[in-house]
Amino acid sequence: xxxxxxxxxxxxxxxxxxxxxxxxxxxxxxxxxxxxxxxxxxxxxxxxxxxxxxxxxxxxxxxxxxxxxxxxxxxxxxxxxxxxxxxxxxxxxxxxxxxxxxxxxxxxxxxxxxxxxxxxxxxxxxxxxxxxxxxxxxxxxxxxxxxxxxxxxxxxxxxxxxxxxxxxxxxxxxxxxxxxxxxxxxxxxxxxxxxxxxxxxxxxxxxxxxxxxxxxxxxxxxxxxxxxxxxxxxxxxxxxxxxxxxxxxxxxxxxxxxxxxxxxxxxxxxxxxxxxxxxxxxxxxxxxx
Length: 289
Description:
single chain; 11 helices; alpha/beta; two-stranded antiparallel ribbon
């Protein structure tokens, strides 16, 4: 079955990027000239996704406004003959069929995904984590969708994580199937050093079967007292097995100050409008460090 739907959990409080996230959702923080959430939506669309549900919460309606039409702005751009910008602004509102749902309580990623049960129905679906902008020649979600269509199992987007950092993520029991594709049969969220199974962790993307909702309905709170999506995926991995795909794309953690700066610099040096001037500036600036 083809993956047609995607869920983007974007209800987090963004405490790691305060005070900016006090008034601006972290998903709306810009990478050069586009907010982070737009990169994620564009990735979903480029991966063949037709319907998107963004999980939000109080104070994040600005995301809905961004993907809506803006008649006053569009009229101003037309009157000033800025048709290039006009077309770009209008195109944002046509990216996909996007719906929104408020998570009234922030009880963890698993709880946020479970809010999407009615939207998903009885189909496999992609989860694109709202903190993670992933940029590459082949969209990360597309690579996961391809693996789902080939193997017919849930798929996790995975990366190698150094031992000293993996306690912040999860650890996976993996066996190689083919180049950059693994069988996943177990996982532990936020492992203690003695619990580390491997240095592969789920980072930012997954494809889940609809059976995950039955698991989430009965799942007790896990790490940090929250409903952890990884705990639900652990049950799937142990019962049915999952697939792990080491995606060929660069991940930026937009819930992290350093990740935001890295994304801005690395996208900026390739931006068609400012790349050459920005690279010249950086070359001069690094001489002062």
